[in-house]
């Protein structure tokens, strides 16, 4: 049986979009702003609550300031619902994201369950975000933080960090970081 070229192309498109969604999580968690910028079209829109409602490039320009107090960011994508139409696609992407934030009274945790409402476009043969909006469905806040990275159970383990200090930068050779990812 000869594979249907249209179905194969749809499968390839879906996988490229899933990879885009996962790359976003990695860029956010590692505070990798060059990689983040490479995931959006230049004229893309990002709606990120009080942090941003407008051009994605403006949001990414503000990320160093937004992320400065965030000691831990950990985005986990679960369900991905996609609809494709040629060079356009839409996605409803479920996520759970942990934020450990330095506050004036010490660190606090915000665990958010929500969804991304995405519009993707393929331009010049590459899928990128054209519009991304965050939707919060629930949040669990712990103040003070309940994260304990000094617990004896974790002794000897690699501990994740934002930016190039993260152990993944020294460990991986094939997984790229920054704009070349």
UniProtKB/TrEMBL annotation:
Coiled coil region boundaries: none
Any Pfam family hit: SnoaL_4
Record domain SnoaL-like: where: 9-132
InterPro entries in alphabetical order: NTF2-like_dom_sf, SnoaL-like
Protein name: SnoaL-like domain-containing protein
Source species of the chain: Rhizorhabdus wittichii (strain DSM 6014 / CCUG 31198 / JCM 15750 / NBRC 105917 / EY 4224 / RW1) (Sphingomonas wittichii)
